[in-house]
């Protein structure tokens, strides 16, 4: 059974604003998470420069033997990425769905300050439901 | 679940949660009224409404992009059409039309025939300088700024002031490149 390890949201300037462990495997402490987030932000920016043709929007999928990393960047610049077991399906739709949850439960919360760390319980609850493996399969349809 | 391309404004409008239009209109009216009481100056109220709109716009853009499945527009013309046809429909339930393009395609008018914000409004003599719907111009400005377009949005026609429609002039001032590395002097 393919599993999701963790989920990150980074703001326009590369700061980690949300992190969530989704399973028992692949857990990381806070410092490592921050490091991964800022590393990924820079690598994503560099990858745009690597493109031989203009208009590249950066790495969308990084595959390694022990994990896959799927990234989705919204047009305003917030990045959502999920780290999962190699070959986990439907991650693109999951990321798009998380983006919708973010607009509904984070941005519409009047007490959420834009670009700041996300502490919204409703977002957490809905996200937990979304990453349950049977829900993810549903998104793929 | 993954949107396979831009969805139409109608489709999105019918699929998201909505509130009673009267509640919306009356709430907006109450806000404007309260601002007039608090600030006691019509120009200040215009400014405040614009700022409120801006604050809404910088958040709203994400919802617009997430739920419409719209991706990067090729030029400002497409952007204006998207605002008029998808944006207005999605959030206000009305469609607007785009016209009066200038020669280099950086300035246009968005015309609203139907405007749910003003259903019960008559502007009294004491508020003649008020742009009652100024929140809308702020929303557009804020939303476009988040996708790296600096714009200036002004009302050119306002039915509450005796014109025959609502017309917003949207002027593209500058397109900020979003690519790294940012230049040192920026």
Automatic annotation (TrEMBL), chain A:
Designated gene of the protein: LOC108836098
Cited InterPro entries: Longin-like_dom_sf, TRAPPC
Record keyword Transport present: yes
UniProt-recorded name of the protein: Trafficking protein particle complex subunit
GO BP of this protein: endoplasmic reticulum to Golgi vesicle-mediated transport
Keywords carried by this UniProt record: Endoplasmic reticulum, ER-Golgi transport, Golgi apparatus, Transport
Family: Belongs to the TRAPP small subunits family. TRAPPC4 subfamily.
Organism: Raphanus sativus (Radish)
Main location: endoplasmic reticulum
Subunit text: Part of the multisubunit transport protein particle (TRAPP) complex.
One GO cellular component, as annotated: Golgi apparatus
SUPFAM superfamilies reported for this sequence: SNARE-like
A Pfam cross-reference name: Sybindin
Keyword Endoplasmic reticulum assigned: yes
Compartment annotation: Endoplasmic reticulum; Golgi apparatus, cis-Golgi network; Golgi apparatus
Automatic annotation (TrEMBL), chain B:
Coarse class of the protein's main subcellular location: endoplasmic reticulum
Pfam family, one: TRAPP
UniProt KW Endoplasmic reticulum keyword: yes
GO cellular component, as recorded: cis-Golgi network membrane; cytosol; endoplasmic reticulum; TRAPP complex
InterPro entries in the record: Bet3, NO_sig/Golgi_transp_ligand-bd, TRAPP_component
Single Gene Ontology BP annotation: intra-Golgi vesicle-mediated transport
Keywords: Endoplasmic reticulum, ER-Golgi transport, Golgi apparatus, Transport
Subcellular location: Endoplasmic reticulum; Golgi apparatus, cis-Golgi network
Assembly with partners or alone: Homodimer.
Role of this protein: May play a role in vesicular transport from endoplasmic reticulum to Golgi.
UniProt family annotation: Belongs to the TRAPP small subunits family. BET3 subfamily.
PANTHER family: TRAFFICKING PROTEIN PARTICLE COMPLEX SUBUNIT 3
Name of the protein in question: Trafficking protein particle complex subunit
Organism: Brassica napus
Name of encoding gene: BnaA09g15790D
């Amino acid at each position: 059974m393919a599993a999701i390890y963790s989920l990150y949201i980074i703001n326009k300037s590369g700061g980690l604003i949300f992190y969530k462990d989704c399973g028992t495997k692949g857990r990381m402490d806070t410092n490592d998470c921050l490091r991964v987030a800022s590393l990924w932000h820079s690598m994503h920016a560099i990858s745009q420069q690597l493109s031989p043709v203009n208009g590249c929007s950066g790495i969308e999928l990084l595959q390694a033997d022990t994990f896959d990393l799927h990234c989705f960047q919204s047009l305003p610049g917030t990045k959502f990425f999920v780290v999962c077991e190699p070959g986990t399906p439907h991650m693109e739709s999951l990321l798009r769905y998380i983006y919708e949850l973010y607009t509904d439960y984070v941005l519409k919360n009047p007490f959420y300050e834009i670009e700041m760390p996300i502490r919204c319980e409703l977002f957490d609850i809905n996200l937990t439901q979304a990453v349950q493996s049977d829900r993810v399969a549903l998104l793929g349809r | 679940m993954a949107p396979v391309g831009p969805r139409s404004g109608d489709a999105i409008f019918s699929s998201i949660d909505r509130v009673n239009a009267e509640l919306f209109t009356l709430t907006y009216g109450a806000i404007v009224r309260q601002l007039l009481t608090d600030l006691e100056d019509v120009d200040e109220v215009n400014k405040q409404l614009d700022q409120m709109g801006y604050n809404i716009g910088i958040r709203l853009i994400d919802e617009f992009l997430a739920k419409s499945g719209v991706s990067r527009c090729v030029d400002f013309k497409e952007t204006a059409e998207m605002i008029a046809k998808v944006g207005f429909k999605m959030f206000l339930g009305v469609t607007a039309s785009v016209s009066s393009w200038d020669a280099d395609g950086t300035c246009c008018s968005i015309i609203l025939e139907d405007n749910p914000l003003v259903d019960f409004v008559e502007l009294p003599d004491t508020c003649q300088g008020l742009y009652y719907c100024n929140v809308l111009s702020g929303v557009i400005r804020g939303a476009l700024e988040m996708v790296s377009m600096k714009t200036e949005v002004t009302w050119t026609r306002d039915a509450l002031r005796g014109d025959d429609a609502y017309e917003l002039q949207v002027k593209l001032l500058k397109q900020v490149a979003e690519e790294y590395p940012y230049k040192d002097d920026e």
